[in-house]
Amino acid sequence: MKKIMVVGAIIVDNNNKIFCAQRGPGRTLENLWEFPGGKIEEGETDIQALKRELAEELKISVLVKEVVFERTQFEYDFGIVDLSTFICHLQNGKQPILSEHIASKWLSIKELETLDWAPADEPAVKKLMRVGVLHD
């Protein structure tokens, strides 16, 4: 089965709320919630891919905490997704602009469980609920 290397951003604002994005209809995993990001292209590092995807999808730039927060593999019918999530903070105070998602929410950690998450994102959600957003 095909392995798909992807990255996701756990974007945290100044109030420790986390940005959650809902996938659009007609797309794989439609209407499920996710941490935004996408596929790693050949020659990119995880962090380069994450910054590129967020600039393309949400028109934002972020500071990325360079340690992987959670790494998960999940087997879907279309392939095995290998997802690395990173804690990120918005730069320049610019808010995300949706281009590929149909909805977004800023939620507290305890509110994350109210959403219907894509299976590959669920371990990161559970870890956030267990340990919170780690600070340096």
Automatic annotation (TrEMBL):
UniProt-listed GO biological process terms: DNA repair; DNA replication
Keyword Metal-binding: yes
Annotated EC: 3.6.1.55
GO MF annotation: an example: metal ion binding
Origin superkingdom: Bacteria
Keywords: DNA damage, DNA repair, DNA replication, Hydrolase, Magnesium, Metal-binding, Mutator protein
Co-factor(s): Mg(2+)
Boundaries of every Nudix hydrolase domain copy: 2-129
Catalytic activity: 8-oxo-dGTP + H2O = 8-oxo-dGMP + diphosphate + H(+)
Key word Hydrolase present: yes
Top EC class, one word: hydrolase
Family designation: Belongs to the Nudix hydrolase family.
Protein name as annotated: 8-oxo-dGTP diphosphatase
Species whose genome carries this gene: Lactococcus cremoris subsp. tructae
